[in-house]
Specification:
Helix content: 10-25%
Number of strands: 9
Low-confidence stretches: 1-13
Strand content: 25-35%
Order of helices and strands: HEHHEEEEHEHEEE
CATH class: Alpha Beta
Mean pLDDT: 88
CATH architecture: 3-Layer(aba) Sandwich
Distance between the termini: 78 Å
Length: 199
């Protein structure tokens, strides 16, 4: 009987390893990340305004993060992208980051994975000296991290977007104070192989 109780205790004891960890994305994560985004965001995800900004660009250096379960599977993802958040009053581009997409495996929702990814992204962006992060998302979710529509009121996304869902967080006080204009991609580009025409 004691042996059976030991097995039961082992089954229900708190795990010695966390349920998930936040890690840097690696090239080996690409297929799993893309499959997760397709499941979470649907086939039309490439038509969003944010995707126009991210198209053919690499994420910002060190700012592509994943959540992994205990055996290393990708169960969440977030990336940040270099952008110009309009221009300052003096006409200078205002460097910033665009957050997204954020996605968590549906079977793991409600376990704090999305929040952990956003917090880790903010901390890492601060460490790297960035001034602000913008995103398009639900204010009711992102306000807890300090993102507010008021900070992005003089900025616009390319293509259609919902003004109340366009939010910003200043990592450095006043960074977006006089920024106005269109969000433009400024990150490193990658080139697609040229398509050959068969005659």
């Amino acid at each position: 009987m004691a042996a059976v109780l030991d097995v039961v205790r082992a089954l229900f004891a708190p795990a010695s390893t966390p349920a998930f960890v936040i890690d840097r994305e690696t090239p080996a994560d690409v297929v799993a990340r893309e499959a997760l985004l397709d499941r979470a965001l649907g086939a039309d995800r490439s038509k969003k305004s944010s995707e126009k900004v991210r198209k053919d660009r690499f994420p910002a250096q060190g700012l592509a993060l994943v959540a992994r379960d205990r055996v290393g599977h990708v169960i969440g993802t977030v990336r940040l992208w270099n952008i110009e958040a309009g221009v300052s009053r003096e006409g200078q581009p205002v460097d910033a980051l665009l957050l997204g997409p954020l996605a968590v495996d549906a079977a793991r929702e409600g376990k704090g994975i999305g929040s952990a990814l956003v917090r880790a992204a903010i901390v890492e962006a601060k460490k790297r000296g960035h001034g602000a992060i913008l995103l398009v998302g639900d204010a009711s979710y992102y306000e807890r991290f300090g993102f507010f529509a008021k900070k992005a009121r003089h900025l616009v996304m390319p293509g259609p977007f919902a003004r109340e869902r366009f939010l910003a967080l200043e990592l450095k006080a006043g960074w977006l104070h006089d920024a106005a204009g269109m969000i433009v991609a400024s990150g490193r580009k990658f080139s697609r192989p040229a398509q050959r025409t068969v005659v």
